[in-house]
């Protein structure tokens, strides 16, 4: 069966309500059959030191997606060389799932830096990118926004970030509205980010 799959790559440290709003919006309002939330062990542009272990971040994604039929956690990058260049993952996925049609989903902050990604032109030649609005520093990626393969998603802006949540937990603030209940339970039980 030919399925149209949206790949939502992320560090998910931790997964938050903003991520879920985006993934659910794509599940409900696009032609994607499934959204795979791909947990990235190591973003080539981020330091690895502040990261929870891969399997803890995957567990939180698993808990967050449990009741959403079209959302699937993915650990496909765990077995690939690090840091994780998205082009390598896409090549691997196309080989492993030759009948699937893969698209990318990302927040506007990532589009602004997309010109710095490895083989970004090749990625765009072969994949559509759905961009979710986000307030973020840096110039707008005007040229990319006009690219025929880039589709801006018309959806409300959500100002939640994992960084904000990690800092808030460190300061003993209540962050429960920003996370799925089961994700918060795991963070609390495991004493993460304190
Ligand atoms: N509130 C948001 N609105 C739009 N896109 C978002 C939002 N939060 C995350 N994203 C997108 O989700 C993907 C994964 O993001 P990531 O896991 O880095 O979350 P983050 O909140 O940006 O984390 P951090 O604060 O640690 O950098 C990226 O494409 C990012 O642009
Ligand atoms: O391939 C690249 O050059 C590249 C550069 C920066 C980020 N990425 C990917 O972008 C995804 C989103 O990262 P993040 O940390 O913003 O959640 C993650 O899968 C990274 O590996 C990929």
TrEMBL record:
| Any Pfam family | CTP_transf_like
Would the keyword Nucleotidyltransferase turn up in this protein's UniProt record?
Answer: yes
Q: What is its EC number?
A: 2.7.7.18
User: For this protein, what reaction is catalysed?
Assistant: nicotinate beta-D-ribonucleotide + ATP + H(+) = deamido-NAD(+) + diphosphate
GO terms (BP aspect): NAD+ biosynthetic process
Q: In which pathway does it act?
A: Cofactor biosynthesis; NAD(+) biosynthesis; deamido-NAD(+) from nicotinate D-ribonucleotide: step 1/1
Class of enzymatic activity (EC top level): transferase
Gene3D superfamilies found in the cross-reference section: HUPs
Q: Where is the Cytidyltransferase-like domain?
A: 7-167
Q: What is a GO molecular function of this protein? A: nicotinate-nucleotide adenylyltransferase activity
UniProt keywords (A-Z) are: ATP-binding, NAD, Nucleotide-binding, Nucleotidyltransferase, Pyridine nucleotide biosynthesis, Transferase
Q: Which InterPro entries match?
A: Cyt_trans-like, NadD/NMNAT, Rossmann-like_a/b/a_fold
Q: Does the keyword Lyase apply?
A: no
Q: Family, per the entry?
A: Belongs to the NadD family.
Q: What function is annotated for this protein?
A: Catalyzes the reversible adenylation of nicotinate mononucleotide (NaMN) to nicotinic acid adenine dinucleotide (NaAD).
What NCBIfam families does this protein map onto? cyt_tran_rel (TIGR00125), nicotinate (nicotinamide) nucleotide adenylyltransferase (TIGR00482)
Report the HAMAP family cross-referenced here.
Answer: NaMN_adenylyltr (MF_00244)
Q: What is this protein called?
A: Probable nicotinate-nucleotide adenylyltransferase
* Organism, as annotated: Christiangramia oceanisediminis
């Amino acid at each position: 069966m030919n399925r149209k799959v949206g790949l939502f790559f992320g560090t998910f440290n931790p997964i938050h309500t903003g991520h879920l709003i985006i993934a659910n919006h794509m599940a409900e309002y696009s032609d994607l059959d499934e959204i795979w939330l791909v947990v990235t062990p190591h973003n080539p542009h981020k330091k690895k030191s502040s990261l929870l272990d891969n399997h803890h971040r995957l567990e939180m994604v698993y808990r967050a997606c449990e009741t959403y039929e079209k959302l699937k956690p993915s650990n496909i990058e765990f077995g690939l060389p690090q840091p994780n260049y998205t082009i390598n993952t896409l090549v691997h996925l196309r080989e492993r799932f030759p009948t699937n049609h893969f698209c990318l989903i990302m927040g506007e902050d990532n589009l602004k830096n997309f010109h710095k990604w490895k083989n970004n032109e090749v990625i765009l030649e072969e994949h559509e990118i759905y961009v979710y609005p986000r307030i973020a520093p840096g110039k707008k990626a005007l040229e990319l926004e006009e690219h025929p393969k880039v589709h801006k998603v018309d959806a409300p802006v959500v100002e939640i970030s994992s960084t904000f949540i990690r800092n808030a937990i460190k300061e003993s603030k209540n962050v429960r509205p920003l996370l799925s209940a089961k994700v918060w339970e795991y963070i609390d039980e495991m004493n993460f980010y304190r």
